[in-house]
Amino acid sequence: MSKSSLDLLKERMREVFYQEKEITEISERIEMMRGWQEPGGAQIGLGIQSSRATDALGDLCAEILDLEAELAQSTLTLIRTDLETRRLSTYLKNDTQKAIFIWRYICRLKWPKVAERAGLSEANVMRAHAAAINTLALLY
């Protein structure tokens, strides 16, 4: 049984948050590993001049490069998703629904902040969001 266009759209919109989390985790790992390259980052013995330390440093640098490539790919995926989300938002004719959709999926605000910006209760924001998703699912 295939997924409905509504389910596909909802899944696609949720991916934004997973992509952003992945980018954050990769960035934090890169920064941690770069710290190991600093003086005192002796967890791999980099302060000692030996071929073993040099090999360890080379392995660390290669791993950082791999992570940076993964980070770049994840960032490009997120940018593409943001562009698609922006394109989808242009089909929303209701200004409130459009704003809620953009705040949630491009600005990635949490629901309480979206409600605050919209000047609505969270329940009303959720209803407007559901209406926006239903409208867009027809196009998806």
Taken in chain order, the helices and strands follow as HHHHH
| N-to-C CA distance | 18 Å
What ranges have pLDDT less than 50 throughout 5 or more consecutive residues? none
Q: Could you describe the largest sheet, including whether it forms a barrel?
A: none
Helix content: over 70%
Domain count: the total is 2
Q: Mean pLDDT score, rounded?
A: 88
Secondary structure tally: strands: 0
Give the count of helical stretches.
Answer: 5
Structural class designation:
mainly alpha
Rg: 22 Å
- Fraction of residues in β-strands: under 5%
Gross morphology: elongated
Describe the protein:
Helix 3 (95-105) packs antiparallel against helix 4 (111-118) and helix 3 crosses helix 5. This protein is mostly helical and 140 residues long. Helix content is 76%, strand content 0%. The protein is elongated. The chain has two domains: 12-89; 92-140, Arc Repressor Mutant, subunit A. It is built from five helices and no strands.
Layout of SSEs?
Layout: H1 5-37, H2 51-89, H3 95-105, H4 111-118, H5 122-137
Report a brief summary of the structure.
The protein is mainly alpha-helical and 140 residues long. The chain has helices spanning 5-37, 51-89, 95-105, 111-118, 122-137.
Features:
single chain; 140 residues; mainly alpha; Arc Repressor Mutant, subunit A; 2 domains; 76% helix
